[in-house]
Each structure stands twice: as structure tokens, then as C-alpha cells.
Amino acid sequence: MLLGRKPRVRRNAAIKGENFRWPNATVPYEFKDNNSEELDYFFHLFFELFAMLCCAYAEWQAIIRKGMYKWQKETCIRFVRRSSEKDYAVFFKGGGCYSNVGRTGGRQYVSIGWGCEGGGIVAHEIGHALGFWHEQSRPDRDRDQGAIFWPCPVPKNRVLQGNFEKRNDIMDSDIPYDFGSVMHYGPQAFTNNWKFVTIETKDHRFQHTIGQRADISFIDVKHANRLYCSHICKTNLMCENGGYEDPRNCNHCKCPPGLGGLRCERIADSTPGCGGEMFATAAWQTLRNSVVGSCHWRFFIVTNRPTIQAPSGRIHVEVIETNFVCDSSCADEYLEIKHTKNMEQTGFRREPGHRFEYLSSGSVKLHAEIHHRWFHYDSNKARFLANSDSIPTPPPAAWEGNGGLTGLLAANEAGIDNTFETLILKDFPRAIGRNRGGANIASLFGILDSFLKHVRKSYVEMRANLECMSLLS
């Protein structure tokens, strides 16, 4: 599939206009340890204090380069140290995580402040600088399997509400909405109460897919390659299942996760001891797995076998047991199910400890992946069969995310749920481009008070958990 083909018009998350693109897919950049031109004296001291508690300047630069590398290794985009270029990006330790969308001309700032020091979070901000809005800003977000946004308990601040609005200055594309995009906000973005979600997916099985900050997704990469690299490959390799010619090697197809082969026509290789093709029949079959690594299965029905009775060609999978660690946004360890013919889109990612049922959507194939990073003594268990009957639509899932300050304090790049953006944007809605002036002491103490309340709450919960564990031991 050539990058230039657009058989169905959708809207991706890229801002319209070639003037917002970086020429020759090259982003000149500089590092700056602070931005005294943008922040007043007291704000500068505040963030410098926390910067000292987090990481050294050299480590901070290395984290930013890690975020750059996530884009560079998958696309033709290059990041180079600025020499004399007029248009360039300046990375600095400002008040949180933020960036302009696209090339604005001249010097533009990308803030990677305290709490933003993760490769996936940096990749998110770089995505903005490359020209991408948040995925939930796409005009087609409410179509098909798009996201529904519940404004409670989002603050009434008009600036914050803009994060939940659809945008019209976005390019047309055939690339589907991606719940697994690094540009998608998490379930609790800007919430005032961690017991509630502010972003609820229309299909609740995607609820733990949104908000990951482990890496850029396949669709993120495809967006960037279409935006900056579509002129490179001139051949048509007839890539399948959403694959396309890799601009870094035009003789190979770039395949969605879980697929491989010359044209993305087969299942990807798995960690030895797991994965493979599974043939669904009219009788239940059980699948167990305890392998640490990446395991890919493809479930399908061979319709020319007379013993298989599944007129609609649908496959019923019931997940009985799972044993892995999964935060509110499953990124490092997860079970992922792709139940439609669309293999580009990130599938359902589920948290452990619950029983679930899946039915393929009008297709004779269903794809499942399990990603384990750590060893577990218990296995994952599922059963499957060829089944023409439907199963009930799953009810709205009760929120069971860890929430809170975990991602903020650990500067964890996976499943951070925009916690730090909440603290910063709630108290600094105009942190970008504000004139140098007197210190806003009220705002400063407001942030300190908010921060200490979060820390105090997390400490109390931690002590309660430790006391509970001591009683059980």
C-alpha cells in the first residue's frame, strides 16, 4: 500500500498547511536548561528546585534524545543540533510539558519540565512540534468506535475544556482513529477526582488502551511517514492489512504490530514457546500461556472443513485468567485483542484479574497478543470456539485504574494519565508566552498546596496498604 493512497476520507490529527511542516523532514534543535525569558523569577526558582530533585542536566538531555529517537528510528524525520537555521526548536525545563503544534517559524519552545522526564512523554510533545494535535481532537472521534467525553469532573476553566474539543484545522486521511496513540489523553486527564474518568470510550473494552506513554503507535508512525516521507518510496509492494512501504527501506513493508512477512500477510514471530495459528471449531478449546515476552496468536476458521459449524465465520474467545501488571493505561504488560479486519488500530488492552468475552466482528480472523516483561508463576488462560451466536455488549466498565500521583512521582512514562499536566495546566493555564512581570505568589502557593495535598493523600494510602499487608502476613 502506497502512503499516498486515500481510499476513504477521514480526519487524522495533523494540522493543515505545508507551512507547519519542517522542511526536508529535518528539525534543528537546541537545549536550554531554563527559560527566564518566559517565566518570572519565582516560577523559575520553583521549577529549578524540583529539577534538582529529579535528574541532572545531562540525564535530562539524554531523555529528550530518547524521545527524538522514537520518531527518528521509525520515519525519515531527523533531529539535528542547530547551527545557523532560522527555524528551530528549543527544549527547556519549563513549567510542565507543552509545545506548539507544527513549525511556527523562528525559535519555538518545547517544555520538558519536572515530571515530564520519560521518553514517551517527550515523544508526545515532539509529536505536537511535528504538527499533530491530540488524537481526541480529531473531528471523527465520535464516529465508528470513537471516544465519548464526559465533562465531569473536568474543571470549568475554559482553557482546560479546549483539550476535549474537536478541531477543524485537521487534515483529511484514511487512517483510522487510534486509541493507542501516544497523542491520546488518558482516562483521567484533568480530573479533579481520581475516582472518576473524564474520557470514556464508546466501546468500553478500549478504556485501558488510551493514554499510554510507552512508545509511539503504529498509526502515529504512519501519520508521520505520510506527512513527511510519502515522496520517498516509488514502488508498490502490495502490502496488506494496513502495511505500507517503509521509507527507511522501500523494499520492505512496514507492518502493524503482530504481523510480519513480505507483505504483512502472516502472523509475526513470537517469543519461543508461545504464539501461533489457532483453528476454532464447534467445541471449546483451551489455551494456556506463561511465557515471558511477546506472544502473537491468530484465531481463524477454515471454512472448507465440513466439521466446523460457524455460518457467520465469527470466533468467540473467553479470557478466563490473566496474570500481569497493568496500570490505568496498559502499556508495558497487557493482553490485546484485535477483533476486526482493521489491523492498524490498537486493539482492546485489558487489565488482569477479570474474565472477559470477545466475538470477532464479521471476520473469520481474530488476533490476540500478550506482552509480558516479568516472570509470573501463574499462567494466562483462555478458551475459544467457532460460534455464530452473538454475546451481550459489555456494560460500562467500573473504573479500576490506579490513578493518582504514581506516574508523577516516579516520572513513569507508561500510563502517566497526564497527571503532571493536570497540576501544571490547572494552575498555569497561560504558562506559554506570558510576559515577564511580578511574581504571582498566589498561584505559586496554590501549586505548592495542590502538590502537597496529592503527596499527603498518596502517603496515607501507602501507609494504609502497608498496615493491611502486615495484618495479612
Automatic annotation (TrEMBL):
Catalytic residues in the record: E125
Binding residue positions for Zn(2+): H124, H128, H134
Cofactor note: Binds 1 zinc ion per subunit.
Bilayer-spanning residue ranges: 41-60
Domain of life: Eukaryota
Disulfide bonds, paired cysteine numbers: C229-C239, C255-C264
Keyword Coiled coil: no
EGF-like domain residues: 225-265
Keyword Zinc attributed: yes
Keyword annotations of the record: Disulfide bond, EGF-like domain, Hydrolase, Membrane, Metal-binding, Metalloprotease, Protease, Transmembrane, Transmembrane helix, Zinc
EC category name: hydrolase
GO biological process: proteolysis
EC number annotated for this UniProt entry: 3.4.24.-
GO MF, one example: zinc ion binding
One Pfam family recorded for the sequence: Astacin
Ranges where the Peptidase M12A domain occurs: 13-230
Requisite cofactors: Zn(2+)
Protein name, per record: Metalloendopeptidase
Organism: Cylicostephanus goldi
